[in-house]
Amino acid sequence: MNDDGVPGPLPVPRPAPPAPGRVRVVAPRRQARSVRAATSVSQEVAEQSAVGEVMVRSLIRSQLRLALVVSAGFVAALLICWMAVRWVPAFADWRILGIPAAWLMLGAGVYPIIGACAWLYVRAATRNEDRYRDLVEGK
């Protein structure tokens, strides 16, 4: 009914608006330079930013360098043992319990060298990781 009391046309129902799709709620971006300068190294690493990548790459490079140095030292120690057996004629004549000393040196004498290299590597690798952790945690 309109204002005069006369029935008028019925209102046409409007179609319902489509249901909204998924809505993604995100935190406000913190890209300002002042905020970026205040972030810690651990945040940089966690966010995989350029600074964090540099820090992780630095740790990987130091561990690789350590592995190469320890490996080179191990090979040098083996070469010294081999040269001693090869060029020192006294080793050819020595026998321990009927076994030539050269065989014992190259067969069993290598294991203490392997153990020492492994111990040195683990000790130095732990020290590298501790330094990295101190840097990241800001101690």
How many angstroms separate the termini?
79 Å
Low-confidence stretches: 31-38
Query: Would you list the SSEs in sequence order as H and E?
Result: HHHHEEHH
Give the helix/strand class.
mainly alpha
Q: Helix share of residues? A: 55-70%
- The order of strands across the largest sheet is 1-2
Percentage of β-strand residues = under 5%
Largest sheet: 2 strands, antiparallel
Coarse morphology: rod-shaped
Count of helical stretches: 6
Rounded mean pLDDT is: 79
- Gyration radius (Cα, Å) is 37 Å
Counted beta strands: 2
Structure description:
- This protein is an all-alpha fold.
- 63% of the residues lie in helices and 3% in strands.
- The chain has six helices and two strands; from the N terminus they run H-H-H-H-E-E-H-H.
- The protein has helices spanning 33-37, 41-46, 50-87, 90-93, 101-107, 110-137; strands spanning 95-96, 99-100.
- A two-stranded antiparallel ribbon has the order 1-2.
- Strand 1 (95-96) and strand 2 form a beta hairpin.
- Helix 3 (50-87) packs antiparallel against helix 6.
- The longest helix is centred in the middle third of the chain and has 38 residues, at 50-87.
- The radius of gyration is 37 Å and the shape is rod-shaped.
- The termini are far apart.
- The model is unreliable at 31-38 (pLDDT under 50).
